[in-house]
Amino acid sequence: MLFLACVLLMLTREMPCLASSQSPSLVAPAGASNQTRNEELEALLTWKSELDSQSRYILSSWNGSNPCSWRGINCDPCGRVVSLDLSDSAIHGTLHYLNFSLLPNLVALKLANNSLFGNIPPSMALLAKLTHLNLSQNGLSGSIPAQLGSLRSLQVLELSYNNFNGPIPNEICSLSNLTGLFLSANKLSGFIPREIGRLKSLNYLLLVNNHITGPIPSSIGNMSSLIMMRLSENQLVGAIPSSIAHLSNLNYLSFRMNKLSGPIPSSISNLSDLNVLHLNRNELSGFLPLEINNLTSLTVLQLDNNNFVGQLPQEICSRQALEHLTAANNRFIGPIPRSLRNCSSLHRVRLQYNLLKGNITDALGVYPYLDYLELSNNELYGELPPTLEECRNLTSLIISNNRISGIIPPQIGNMNQLHRLNLSSNDIVGEIPKDLGKLKSLLELSLDGNYLAGHIPQELGALFDLQKLNIAGNNLSGSIPTELGECSNLLFLNLSGNNLDKSIPVKIGNLQSLQVLDLSKNFLMGEIPGQFAQLHRLEILNLSHNQLLGSIESTFANMVSLTSIDISYNELEGPLPNVSAFRNATIEVVRGNKGLCGVIASLNPCAATMSEGKNKNKKLLLLLIPTLGCLLMLLLVMGTSSIVCRRLRKLEPSSKDGSNENSWAVLNFNGCILYESIIAATKEFDAKYCIGVGGHGSVYKVQLQTGETVAVKKFKEVVEVKISSRKAFEREIHALTEARHRNIIKLHGFCSSSRYSFLVYEFLELGSLKDVLNDEERITAFDWNKRVNVIKGVANALSYMHHDCSPPIAHRDVSSKNILLDEQYEAHVSDFGTAKVLQPYSSNWTSFAGTFGYAAPELAYTMEVKEKCDVYSFGVVTLEVIMGRHPGELISSLAFSASLSSSNSTTSCWPLKQALDQRIAYPNGDMLGQMAFIVKMAFTCLSAKPEHRPSMQQVSQEISAHKSIMIGTSEDIKLEELVDPGCFSY
Ligand SMILES: *[C@@H]1O[C@H](CO)[C@@H](O)[C@H](O)[C@H]1NC(C)=O
Ligand SMILES: *[C@@H]1O[C@H](CO)[C@@H](O)[C@H](O)[C@H]1NC(C)=O
């Protein structure tokens, strides 16, 4: 009977206490003494009452007199509160009102992943029985109180992903039972306490991503229980202490991204269980100790970006365990390690930018799992072994800038996972094998700078995904195969410096994504195909040093994106088209032709036809106004300055100040007509044409009389710009209208009168990304492919504005509202830079002086920060696209403040599978992998520290190359790890 009761008691924790009571009694249910219980109740309820209403709602079970049944509370058999676990509960508040002195029995306090702020009250030291404290992933700040050192029972202390600053208190070193110390992703500074070696029970020491300085104390050698030590992403200096040799249980050691110097101590060979060794991105130098060969359990060895010399460890894969080897950017000499030949476990190898010398033919074996192989910029020679084809999982094969000879083995055509094949700048001979046309996944094919001869195989036309084709600087002959016109995703095509002849195939004009086209230095003949007029996205065009004939005016008039052109040394004649690429060019780009004339200053004006030309232009003007796409032609209007619209006077006779100085426009086409037609078409901005309201004003859909539709953003207040500043202002708006990119909405211009100020944009059918995500009826059409494409588009747009524009332009307001989608679900980022240009002008001109185009170096720094703001916003938008809703809470509470690899991956988990937008079908394997990659990248973009976020250029390149994973600091995380457990470790 008594026994039964005991069992019952163990099962239900809310019965009277037997276990710890001295004289067990079933008669008087004493439980926790009423006093204890009341105190615990009071402590918890007081805390609750100081939380915000949402948190109180989450804790609505917290009422009544029995805390043991409340959410997150556990009691011991005596009914005493021993555990408070509200992890992942969206609690918002501080710890200040939690009276720890009233919770003396607490063993575990787990509040991870909430929105706690403020500091840790030193009174927490009163929790004398506490063994587990987890406050990670909050917004806590201040220093880590030294008083925590009196929590002598503490076994696990987790404070990662907060904003703690100051040093790690020495007192922590007296927590002799501590097994886990997790302080990653904070702002901790100062030295690692010298006495840290006293933590003899410690298994896990994670201090990743802080500002910790000073040397690694040699006392770490005393922490003989350590299994994982990660001190990466700090500012540690000095040598790696040789005492690490005593850490014989160590499995995972990361010192990456510090400023450690000196050689690797040879005693490292004692770490015989070591699986992971990250020493990359330091200032380490010298020869590798021979003993490193004894680390035969290594699966990951990262030595890249140091100053090592001498040979790579030859026996590093003697036990076939090695998966990742990176040693790039050092000064290693000698051959590729011989043990790599049979190292079938390899997944990823990066040895580029060294001085490796040796015959590649014997060095490479068969690697069934190999995903990425980069050996570029070394001195490797020999021929590519045909057995490469057996590396069936290889996605990137990059061996540029070596001395590889022989032919390209046709067997490479069987490597059907290959995304990037780059063999440029070698001594390769023979023909381009037509088998390469079988590489259906190929995104990049670079074979430039070799001795390839023969014809370009027409089979390459089957590479539908190809984005970059570079076969320049070879001895290729014959004509350009017309099939290349089928590679409709090509962004970059370079066939220059060969012996290609005949005329340029008309179909090249079909490559509408093309941004760079270089056909120079060949023997191409005939006219430039009129179809080139369709290359609206072309930015760089080089046709120089050929034998091309005829006139180019009409062909190039519509090349609105063109920024650089070279048509020198051909047999072209007639007027140059009035596009900015020519207007801004020097005579060099047209030199050596038959008779070109026009816009370039030092070129002969087209004398005979000048007035005729003007009239023609006027006619054209009238013709082109309906087609807003043909804007650049009309830039000559802008060539002068602003347009003070005479006809506007009639329209606004009652201008308040009586002058018309306020009526003006900056437009890529005839602003006067547009101003009037917009006013007319909207019946003076009648609400019924309004399609959206934002912070600065309203957006109208305007159907012009010509049938064209534009979007007009009318500002709430008239933008006033002093006459003296107007020129500069116009230059800025003009710069924005000239920023041409397929993923940036076209800004046609700006109009202002004393009554209205507005921007005129192209109109996109689907509206904003936010609208599309909220449209439940059509959400199924917005499938994963389209979503990935939207993310890519946004990345490309931001990368373009940050890195390809001079000066760089930051958006500052990237959100799903500002990303518009066209009918093909292609993303167009809107409002680029306008916030920046307009706000300062409308309020106070002086505050703006100097920041645009004349930025002082110190301002350049703030500019950089602004760009990193865009990177952050991009991370949010990316998660929003994948989750189907704004990730709001997730972000604020998780405070993903650092890269994935930089914290304790064993305790934190983000369920990717659940987070995916459930309204559309679950993605298939490939897509899921891509999703995992993109989410991981989004997380790095959300790093709290701007300097830890990747640049948009990195992001855009990585997404385009979608399999290679090098974002930020997370290069050693495998996709499988991310996807497989159905959750994200970060
Ligand atoms: C505890 O409080 C309850 C009512 O609040 C009372 O009935 C009971 O007698 C008290 N027990 C002790 C041991 O004070
Ligand atoms: C530390 O752990 C040991 C062994 O588990 C235990 O006996 C001891 O009481 C613990 N120390 C403290 C202060 O809790």
Describe this structure in words.
A hairpin with a 5-residue loop joins strand 1 and strand 2 (81-85). The protein is 21% helix and 19% strand. Helix 13 (784-804) runs antiparallel to helix 19. It contains 20 helices and 51 strands. The protein is globular and about 100 Å long. The protein is an alpha/beta fold. The strands form seven sheets. It has a 22-stranded mixed beta sheet, with no helix packed on it. It has an eight-stranded parallel beta sheet with strand order 14-16-18-20-22-24-26-28. Residues 1-30, 609-662, 839-863, 893-909 and 963-986 have low confidence and may be disordered. The structure holds 2-acetamido-2-deoxy-beta-D-glucopyranose (2 copies). Residues 30, 34 line the site of one 2-acetamido-2-deoxy-beta-D-glucopyranose (NAG).
Task: Point out poorly predicted stretches.
Answer: 1-30, 609-662, 839-863, 893-909, 963-986
Secondary structure tally, helices = 20
Helix content: 10-25%
Query: How many strand units?
Result: 51
Largest sheet, strands/sense/barrel? 22 strands, mixed
Shape: globular
Bound molecules: 2-acetamido-2-deoxy-beta-D-glucopyranose
Topology:
Layout lengths: L1 H10 L22 H16 L3 H6 L14 E3 L5 E5 L6 E2 L14 E3 L4 E4 L13 E3 L4 E5 L12 E3 L4 E4 L13 E3 L4 E2 L15 E3 L21 E3 L6 E2 L13 E3 L4 E4 L13 E3 L4 E5 L12 E3 L4 E5 L12 E3 L4 E4 L13 E3 L4 E5 H4 L8 E3 L4 E5 L12 E3 L4 E3 L14 E3 L21 E3 L6 E3 L12 E3 L4 E5 L12 E3 L4 E3 L14 E3 L6 E3 L12 E3 L4 E4 L2 H4 L7 E3 L4 E5 L4 H4 L11 E3 L12 H15 L10 H5 L6 H6 L12 E4 L3 H11 L8 E4 L3 E7 L5 E7 L7 H16 L8 E6 L4 E6 L4 E2 H6 L9 H21 L14 E3 L5 E3 L4 H10 L13 H27 L4 H7 L17 H4 L9 H17 L10 H9 L14 H5 L7
Parallel strand pairs: 2-4, 3-5, 4-6, 5-7, 6-8, 7-9, 8-10, 9-11, 10-12, 12-13, 13-15, 14-16, 15-17, 16-18, 17-19, 18-20, 19-21, 20-22, 21-23, 22-24, 23-25, 24-26, 25-27, 26-28, 27-29, 29-30, 30-32, 31-33, 32-34, 33-35, 34-36, 36-38, 37-39, 38-40, 39-41, 41-42
Antiparallel strand pairs: 1-2, 43-47, 44-45, 45-46, 46-48, 47-48, 49-50, 50-51
The site of one 2-acetamido-2-deoxy-beta-D-glucopyranose has 2 residues, from loops.
